[in-house]
Amino acid sequence: MAWFCLIIAGLLEVVWAYAMKLSDGFSRPIPSAITIATMIASFGLLSYAMRSLPLGTAYTIWTGIGAVGAFALGIVALGEQASLMRIGAAVLIVTGLVLMKLSSPA
């Protein structure tokens, strides 16, 4: 259950990052509210997952899902650049996440 909550927390991090971008510096109410609500939910699920997962593993996986997810969403939804170097960096992050999961005792 902790891993499931951690993955959902990471996906919610992608949502709040995207909503924060759409909030235009918190000047738009609906994206701002979505940002705050999904931040709270994401942190809550991360906190729950940390009850049984090691800090380093949980935090790394959470931020990694958020980073790679926001990167992918930026390319798909916002038309951001998809250069070979940026994609390579995302692949390295995903590789690190897989290794972190494989090395976790929980």
Q: How would you describe this protein?
A:
This protein has one domain (2-103). 81% of the residues lie in helices and 0% in strands. The chain is built from four helices and no strands. It has helices spanning 2-22, 29-49, 55-78, 84-103. Helix 1 packs antiparallel against helix 2 and helix 3 runs antiparallel to helix 4 (84-103).
Comma- or semicolon-separated keywords:
flat, 4 helices, 106 residues
Can you tell me the residue ranges where pLDDT is under 50 for at least 5 consecutive residues?
Answer: none
Instruction: Please state roughly what percent of the residues sit in beta strands, choosing from under 5%, 5-15%, 15-25%, 25-35%, 35-45% or over 45%.
Output: under 5%
**Largest sheet geometry:** none
Tally of structural domains: 1
Order of helices and strands: HHHH
Taking all residues together, what is the mean pLDDT?
95
Radius of gyration: 15 Å
The first-to-last residue Cα distance is 11 Å
Q: What is the helix fraction of residues, given as a range?
A: over 70%
The total of beta strands comes to: 0
Envelope shape: flat
Structural class: mainly alpha
- Helices, by number, come to 4
Short synopsis of the structure:
The chain is an all-alpha fold and 106 residues long.
